[in-house]
Amino acid sequence: MAATVPSDEDEAPAEAGGKRSYSVPAAEKALDVIELMASEPDGLTLTEIAARLGRSVHELYRVIQTLEARGYLYRRDNSDRYRFSLKLFELAHQMPSVRQLSDSALPVMQALAPRVQQSCHLAVLSGHEALIVLQVDSPLPMRYSVMLGAKFDFAETSSGVVIYAHSPPHVREQLDAWLSADGRSAAEREQVARRAEAILASGIEVQQSLAVSGVTNVSVPVFDYLGHVVAALTVPFVPQRAAKVPLETVRGLALEASRQISRNLGAGARRPDAEAGKRGDRR
Fold first, then answer.
1. pLDDT tens digits, 247-268
2. Which residues make beta-bridge pairs with 232?
3. What is the number of other CB atoms lying within 10 angstroms of the CB of residue 88?
4. Contact 251/204 with Cβ under 8 angstroms?
5. Nearest to 112 by CA among 224, 228, 223, 249
6. What is the DSSP string of 128-157?
């Protein structure tokens, strides 16, 4: 039987990395638009999108119409400015692993927030960034919260460094390589390494936020049934008169919550902070 070869006029064979591949211009245009718009919270007009991508308005018109019809882009009040929706984020949450993590963590976090009188959020590692996948607000009128779906450089967040600390060697090496490629100084890279060592020793990071003055991050790891780190639970502690729960108590309750989420994921009765030392020995 003869092999079937793509014949669509939009597809042309190309060589990539020594392997035969096919260029699909329409798909590439759509992905270019999606990747551009994901970093433009204020949105762009069709003309601006075309200029940013170095393409003509005619090339992108139907692509953008399709992305809007499928819910990836939207416009407010029929304006000419397109914005990126949360559809990709919602699709990601339909993946069994993410859904299981959310289902396991949400009730624990909903119980934690009123106990500590602070907000809390859950982050996973996405490339070199910490991605916020769950957020539960403090019951107090004044609160600090992080936008669902927000991404941050892993090294600038407690969540990111906690996950980094407990990650296997090859993941840490990739993140170290990214820090070097991003132009981080040797001192900055060493600071991340020292933080990771301290986290492995204690199982928790309690540190002043690098992004928001006056906020102390209490961040703890979450493990799955294989003992792999899958997320970090963080309580951004905001001192205020109405908040009666002291930082040390918040620390203990955050650890307790992380263990419960880990147990919900099948980690059994193993204590994440006790397991940390074993992982550190294997690095």
1. 999 999 999 999 999 999 988 6
2. 123, 221
3. 14
4. yes
5. 249
6. TEEEEEEEE--SSSS-----TT-EEEGGGS
